[in-house]
Amino acid sequence: MATAVLAATAVMAPLLAASPASAAAAHQGGLHLGFIQYDSPGRDTGSNSSLNGEWVNIHNSTRSAIQLKGYKLKDNTGYTYTFGSYKIGAGKTVKVRTGKGSNGAGYVFWGRSAYVWNNTSDKARLIKPSGSQLDSCSWTTRDNGTRNCH
Q1: pLDDT, tens digit, for every residue of 94-137?
Q2: Are 48 and 40 in contact (CB under 8 A)?
Q3: Looking at the domain 27-148, which fold is it?
């Protein structure tokens, strides 16, 4: 019996070990959506502070900086944020906030006066300048207003 258990473990161990790596490998190729705060914390008051409580992280998992000019972030309704000249460093993340503010290192502002992300169901899409979809992340439940897209 012990031999059978050891043999089964020896056969299954590489498969079990490969599963997490396989899931992570999907994002090792470059730019991807990370963590999304689709429901601003607290009450949705429509204030700029509340609007900026909604955000999407875009992560660069490469070893080189990437120029994001022309990349787009879209929702199901078709609201679209288009990056101007913005370079994201190797291994770095940029946070795209819904409201207004001054762009800086690691964050940009969409400049909207209304919310983008639906609290109960939506899909964020990262689109290349060529128009092809690079990554997407969806949710269908309110949960705690966040989604980890990794």
Answers
A1: 999 999 999 999 999 999 999 999 998 999 999 999 999 999 99
A2: no
A3: Immunoglobulin-like (2.60.40)
